[in-house]
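Researcher: I'd like a candidate sequence for this fold, 144 residues long. If you have to choose between options at a position, lean toward the conservative one.
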């Protein structure tokens, strides 16, 4: 491959990377509805409850600020489909952590994308680009 061809390939790759990053869009979807779907179809068994910050307090906090940062292939999928899928991965990770610590709930959940907290009592934040969708959550493991 000639030097000219190498520069062309590098320029195209740089342009592709920039376009993928530029397409990263923030979406907010209904958290409770997504959790309910995951329980209804058996993805989650329902023994661990999930509460966005401002919806439930009390109980004994066993561990604070547990973070999950999940990604999934979003290529050719709608934001809603990709974000629902990746949220399930995040919830499964929190569910596993809660059970391991003897907790039965994860409370004070906030979106934590790139370590930026976004609080909502109804929605979670998902970032979707051309090829990847991501959800990051932070919450507390609690025993009620």
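Model: Candidate sequence:
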């Amino acid at each position: 491959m000639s030097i000219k061809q190498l520069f062309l390939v590098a320029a195209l790759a740089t342009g592709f990377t920039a376009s993928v990053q530029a397409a990263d869009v923030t979406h907010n979807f209904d958290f409770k509805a997504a959790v309910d779907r995951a329980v209804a179809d058996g993805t989650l068994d329902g023994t661990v409850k999930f509460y966005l910050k401002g919806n439930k307090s009390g109980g004994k906090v066993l561990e604070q600020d547990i973070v999950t940062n999940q990604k999934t292939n979003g290529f050719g999928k709608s934001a809603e489909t990709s974000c629902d899928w990746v949220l399930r991965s995040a919830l499964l990770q929190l569910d596993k952590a809660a059970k391991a610590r003897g907790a039965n709930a994860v409370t004070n959940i906030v979106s934590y994308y790139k370590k930026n907290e976004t609080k909502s009592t109804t929605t979670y934040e998902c970032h979707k680009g051309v090829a990847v969708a991501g959800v990051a959550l932070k919450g507390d493991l609690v025993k009620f």
